[in-house]
Amino acid sequence: MAAGVRLPTAHSPEVQPWSAAELARFLDHASADRLGTLFEVVAACGLRRGEALGLRWADVDLDSRVLHVRQTVTDVGGVLVFGAPKTAASEATVPLTDRATGAILERQLQRDTERERWGEAYADSGLVFAREDGAVLRPEWVTKRFRQLAEAAGLRRIRLHDLRHGAASLMLAAGVPLFVVSKMLRHSSTAITSDTYGHLSQDTARAASDAIGALLDAAFEAAAGDPSGAARDHNAPTSADSRPVDDDAASPVVGETAGRKPVSQSTPPGTRTPNPLIKSQLLCQLS
Question: What is the DSSP track for 146-159?
Fold first, then answer.
């Protein structure tokens, strides 16, 4: 086997992106950095590094709050190369959150200031995220800066690409269906999304199940502690009427006329008619 060749494993390691709290901590710390707006957009839109660096102002529609992924930037032997997105599905429209829209507006003001400062020396590449002089950012430098900011914020180390995974994690935690997450991340198939984030969707389903169990437990505890007995056992036997039964009707005399209807002795007086349309207090609490 050739040196440096790594065979695929049967089970890829599970993605463990930052939690919402960790991401918020990072973005808050990075907001003072020049590249803070880039990381904000990557985290909100789930962009790949090359897609973010290749994003042009012409690809952004702030009125409609969308951006279009049309090209990427990669480093090939020290030469920065513009190319097509990873797959046909990758070249798509991505909606912008309020935070992402605000970050791009902030970057726009930053660009105008830098352009004025550099004057004729400004190399306008038309890119949203560029160097101070307008030139293309090097992918490895962006990754290095990301790691520096994460370490300074006291966060566990993850990859820059994990900001994309974090976007998927937050969507799944919010209950967004897997096929919608797949479309948002521009995967070529839902199977890729499921293979990558299946354990995250299982965690979400488990959390939902635990929430249902907690509600049931609370309802049963409330019913058990109800001093009025309003949440009594709905399977308890009941009589035909809630009104008191008179003594004569309760003790039918032998030889009474056939037209007189005997009164049932199977239930105690004072209970209600077992009407299926009337729910017990417990069921009302769970509905």
Answer: HHHHHHHTTPPP--
Helix (H, G, I), strand (E, B) or coil at 108: helix
Dihedral (Cα; 75, 143, 145, 33), 10-degree rounding: 100
Domain 20-159 = CATH 1.10.443.10: yes
Report pLDDT digits (tens) over 174-231.
Answer: 666 666 666 676 655 566 555 555 555 455 545 544 555 566 677 778 887 765 545 4
Q: How far is CA 287 from CA 41, 89, 226, 280, in A?
A: 41, 42, 18, 11
Do 60 and 184 touch, CB atoms closer than 8 A? no
Q: What is the pTM of this model?
A: 0.61
- CA-to-CA distance for 282 and 226, rounded, in angstroms? 11
Domain locations in the chain? 20-159
Distance in angstroms (rounded) separating the CA atoms of residues 119 and 130 = 16
Return the amino acid letter for 186. Answer: R
3-class state of residue 127 by DSSP: strand
